[in-house]
Amino acid sequence: MLRHLFSCQQSRQEQLKKQKQREMMRLVGVIVFIVVMLKLFKQLKFFSMLDAVMKLESTNKPVVRVKYRDLLFVAKKSEEDEVFIAEMEKVSWTFVGKYGRGYVFEQDGEELFVHKRQFLGLYDVYSIGNKEYFYSKTSALVQ
Predict the structure, then answer these.
(1) N or C: more exposed end of the chain, with fewer CB within 10 A?
(2) Among the listed ranges 34-43, 90-99, 109-118, which one has the minimum average pLDDT value?
(3) What is the pLDDT of residues 110-131, one digit of tens each?
(4) Number of neighbouring beta carbons within 10 Å of residue 73
(5) Which secondary-structure segment (H or E) carries 60?
(6) Using CA atoms, how far apart are residues 75 and 80, in angstroms rounded to an integer?
């Protein structure tokens, strides 16, 4: 009888130990998931991009400007690069050339590099890393 009670108590302790291990694994999994999602949202500027996509889809504009840490222009992938180049020329930046996935524009002897990437495979994102410089060389009407 004592042996039976001892084995029941031992199996109960093992069950509690396994349950605690499962809870710890769940907690670690949730923390890792949250960290990865926060990194993804920050890296992709996800909410700003979704806002830009909604503006792009709800208007007839071929290119939409998004202000975040970087200055972004978003266009449908079906649009040609000339649409973005024309948008830059509207604000007095002259197209110099294309280098890989980047575009070089010039204004008053100063050059500006714009990096192009894709978003969700449906949109092209043109990123200007130094928006303060862009705005310092561009009229206040564009801001």
Answers:
(1) N
(2) 34-43
(3) 888 888 888 778 888 888 866 6
(4) 20
(5) none
(6) 9
